Amino acid sequence: QVQLVESGGDSVQPGGSLRLSCAASGSDFSIRVMGWYRQAPGKERELVAHISSGGITNYADSLKGRFTISRDNAKTTVYLQMNSLKPEDTAVYYCYLRTWGAVSYWGQGTQVTVSS
Question: Exposure of 70 by Cβ count < 10 A (0-12 exposed, 13-18 middle, 19+ buried)?
Answer without folding.
Answer: middle
